[in-house]
Amino acid sequence: MSPIIESADVVVIGGGPGGSTTATLLAKRGHRVVLLEKETFPRYQIGESLLPSTVHGIGRMLGVTEELEKAAFTVKRGGSFRWGTNPVPWNFLFAVAPELSGPTSTAYQVERMKFDDILLRNAARTGVDVRENSPVTEVVSDDERVRGVRYTDPDGAEHEIRATFVVDASGNRSRVHQNVGGERLYSDFFQNIALFGYFTGGKRLPAPDSGNILCAAFDEGWIWYIPLSDELTSVGVVIAREHAAKLQGDQEQAMRGFLDRCEIVKDMLADATRVTEGVYGEIRTRKDYSYTNSTFHRPGMVLVGDAACFIDPVFSTGVHLATYAGLLAARSINTVLAGESTEERVFAEFEGRYRREYRVFYEFLSAFYDMQSNEESYFWKARKVTNFNATDLEAFVSLVGGVHSGEQAFTNADQLVGGFRESSGALADAVERTGAMDTETGDKMHHLFGTPVVREVMAEMNNVQVRGVLGEQARELPLLEDGLVPSADGLAWTEAK
Ligand code: FAD
């Protein structure tokens, strides 16, 4: 039987954070967007620890800030690490970075079932035609470009939607990405396997860091410990592929063995019980998740989120990269549909910015895996890869806060106008307010905040962001050579003047 034919401006495949972000930001410009999702939401997904850029930057652009607040997710002020040669756990706080100061200096730990559902329902409210239980089975193309998709509806009927653009945000395990051509290049460095489950009754870090993600290294890898609520904790073990044999057989036993070898996590879980029923009742494994596609775009089609690339769970960059890519893709498509630039030009901007963000995190995370180093060398590496003319510590926190891209949308410009305009005078106060690090590095950081270079960097960042709040002169500078800049509403690209 021939398929039912329909048309749209854009078809988005996948209703995860990448797909919902892209679809919503396209619908805000009035385009006809159909989002096809193979599951019925809410559905399970891993990737629960978020960065401030997603919560406050993208969340604000999507219009879900209040809904996220109402969901009462665990507030995450930063991360706690038992890593490197230092046996004492150390913290970083998002609030140390000047761009992140103020009320936007936190993120959330989320149950992805709830978080992704909020984003998808919001997309529908914004005007996206969301169709669940509707797997895409084929991408329709000719020699020139991608022309649409075929999918099966919940009653089993075949549909074909013809569209000017197809966005593949179908995640890690779908094969749809193959339609852009190129290859999926797996990382030589990150070849890890994750084994994860859920516990009730686990301990919490002392306040005010009780919402932090705890990452603890042990001989064969590291463990994440994410407080999802007062009761529920997500616990995952990440090990190098050469230890895969240890996962054969009983998964529960394998997991218990790893957890017992990591003193700090063993102690946190001393009175805890593993959840064995419902959606959190399984022990799951994931592997082969660190890759990048050799191309992210072909005429008529673009890859967003895990469909394009992912690095590694450490430092919680997955949802940030997926939603950042969604923003970049929506700007690119909005610009072409408005007839304001060519597909070639806007997708060069898309791919350039996206790869830049990916590359910086990739380099930094590679350095982080050098467990023989102490934390000083991570700071140093962060500085090196970001090319920031900033102190090591600021560069480090900016990077792990997801604001390294320089996107104004990710930072709290209003707050900066009010809070840090007088940056030189505010430096010492900022240290007092944030509380800084609660380890022996705290003193060192206090000293760093007092240096002239930090003052300059803070002042310049403030200037850029204040201009953003004030409109016209607020235009962002291009990030790439001869690159484009965001339009005034942030939903498209425009030539830099
Ligand atoms: P997804 O969230 O995977 O969404 C894709 C959607 O597409 C799914 O809903 C799927 O059902 C749908 N789909 C698939 N095929 C089709 C089809 N043919 N038709 C229609 N729909 C389809 N990230 C973090 O930010 N923080 C973390 O703490 C973190 N921890 C992680 C731990 C591990 C072990 C791993 C492997 C990853 C982790 N991540 C983390 C990464 C995070 O899971 C992903 O980066 C994120 O989910 C990507 O979002 P997405 O929208 O691209 O894809």
TrEMBL record:
Keyword match DNA repair: no
Gene3D superfamilies: 3.30.9.100, FAD/NAD(P)-binding domain
Keywords of the record: Monooxygenase, Oxidoreductase
Listed Pfam families: Trp_halogenase (PF04820)
InterPro entries: FAD/NAD-bd_sf (IPR036188), Flavin-dep_Halogenase_NPB (IPR050816), Flavin_halogenase (IPR006905)
Name the UniProt record assigns to this protein: FAD-binding protein
Entry keyword annotation includes Oxidoreductase: yes
GO molecular function, one term: monooxygenase activity
Superkingdom of origin organism: Bacteria
Family of the protein in this entry: Belongs to the flavin-dependent halogenase family. Bacterial tryptophan halogenase subfamily.
